[in-house]
Fold this sequence. Notes:
41% strand, 7 strands, alpha/beta
Amino acid sequence: MGIRLQISRSLRERIIAEATASLDEICGLLLGEGATVSDAVACANVHPTPATHFELDPTVLFHALRTARAGGPAVIGHYHSHPTGSTMPSTTDAAAAAADGAFWIIAADGGVAAWRAVRDGTVHGRFDPVALAIAR
């Protein structure tokens, strides 16, 4: 794990709390710069089967991308949960992920893990694990 994704304790705990409160997969955007998360923006999960899949609300995504283009924080990745699974990416996650270097935080069972979507990743050929650095 060469890259370390930095996130504040409060943002990490907010993602965990959001995931714990829902029977469906939750999802949101990770905003920041480089490998530092400065904010996590919750999105509606608009997938037709949200108990087992997620799809970010495109309205929220497009707004975040426009804000970044205007000088705001970049969209460096996203987060979602696996309500009945683990913090490992699923084969469904791998099939949906572009090898674009985006960070993925997956919440499950009261914890989170970080991943990076890459070509020829070590997990399902799409993801490499990323260490989380928890800042105060």
